[in-house]
Design brief:
The chain is α/β, with parallel strands linked by helices. The protein has 13 helices and twelve strands. The strands form three sheets. It has an eight-stranded parallel beta sheet with strand order 1-12-9-8-5-4-3-2. Strands 6-7 form a two-stranded antiparallel ribbon.
Length: 338
């Protein structure tokens, strides 16, 4: 049977994903250090509101509140035995919302990193990582997720372990990494390296790409890095809504809906098929993104100068591949319009 996401991708030029999970939940009262996944049980109505906000804003895909629902992260809260339960409930709530949408909406089971460093650098073994990802995947599967959505990964070893765990659970998946260190992930992988990684997997993702990072401009430069490899696999772009600022005890992102609308159109023109937001992206941003994608015609693939001029300069001179050293007249400091 064809995965519903694959079917939707075959019918549409682009799909819109959702926005932030953490930022929206903090605005609903989540306290710093409190596991968001506990709210699947303790604050069910707020998780419904989170999902419904994305659907009402026009998202074709929304991620479940299960980013940290793995034994490694939950152990910090003495809840390592709840990974399956919290993942299942996150997907069950998502299924409930999606099935009432009146249109096809994909429930994507969010799977974040373990938070541990894998061997040989760290202590987490491949086998243990696979088991953790498999447990979360099985919980999301039991809850009715259409597809798994691996996100914010830095290490290729962890990406491979997740892919194996997902295969053991019998689930299709998508997977993004976070490029936040001069065009590389924290563990040094470039956009070109990620394409090679994805192509080397025995069960590659339906779609792959980048999320989070240091700003929308950098993320789109990474997106261009993916397309430059000639990949035909659908690409995901899920960038932050501007740059974070710490105000009155909370982190705020200064990207306006207008800025995120520009980002969405540029992401599409860069070659992304699935476009969404990450940290700081609220329903009002999503509504502006959806309107722009629906009403503005497709344009040529943008240059780095066009991206920087529209969204702000890059945080580094290079994307890590050595093929796009910054020109002297290109803005060197990242910024966002507020």
């Amino acid at each position: 049977m064809t995965n519903p996401l694959t079917k939707l991708l075959s019918e549409r030029d682009w799909l819109m994903a959702d926005g932030a999970t953490g930022t929206n939940l903090f605005n609903m009262g989540l306290e710093s250090g409190e596991p968001p996944e506990f709210w699947n049980v303790d604050e069910r109505a707020k998780i419904i509101k989170l999902y419904q906000g994305a659907v009402d804003a026009g998202s074709d895909i929304f991620l479940t509140n299960s980013f940290g629902a793995n034994a490694s992260r939950l152990k910090l809260h003495k809840a390592e035995d709840r990974a399956f339960e919290l993942s299942r409930i996150a997907a069950e709530i998502g299924r409930e919302v999606a099935d009432k949408a009146g249109r096809k909406v994909i429930v994507a089971g969010s799977v974040g990193p373990t938070g541990a460093i894998m061997q040989p650098v760290g202590d987490l073994s491949h086998a243990d990582a696979v088991a953790m990802f498999e447990e979360t995947a099985k919980g999301l599967k039991a809850g009715g997720a259409d597809v798994l959505w691996l996100e914010t990964i830095s290490a290729p070893e962890e990406y491979r372990a997740a892919a194996e765990g997902f295969a053991n659970a019998g689930m299709d998946w998508c997977g993004t990494m976070s490029f936040d260190t001069a065009g590389r992930t924290m563990m040094g992988l470039t956009s070109a390296g990620m394409v090679q990684l994805v192509d080397s997997l025995p069960n590659p993702p339906i779609a792959f790409g980048a999320n989070c990072g240091v700003g929308a401009s950098d993320l789109l430069r990474t997106t261009l890095g993916f397309t430059a490899q000639g990949t035909e696999r659908p690409i995901i772009a899920k960038g932050n809504a501007g740059i974070p600022r710490f105000e009155e005890g909370h982190i705020h992102y200064d990207g306006t809906p207008e800025l995120m609308a520009e980002y969405a159109v540029l992401a599409r023109d860069c070659g992304a098929r699935i476009i969404g937001g990450c940290c700081g992206t609220m329903p009002e941003h999503l509504r502006a993104m959806r309107e722009a994608l629906e009403t503005r015609p497709r344009g040529p693939r943008p240059s780095l100068e066009v991206i920087a001029g529209t969204l702000g300069g890059f945080s580094s001179d290079s994307d890590g591949t050595g093929s796009d050293a910054a020109k002297p007249d290109r803005p060197r400091r990242r910024r966002a319009r507020s």
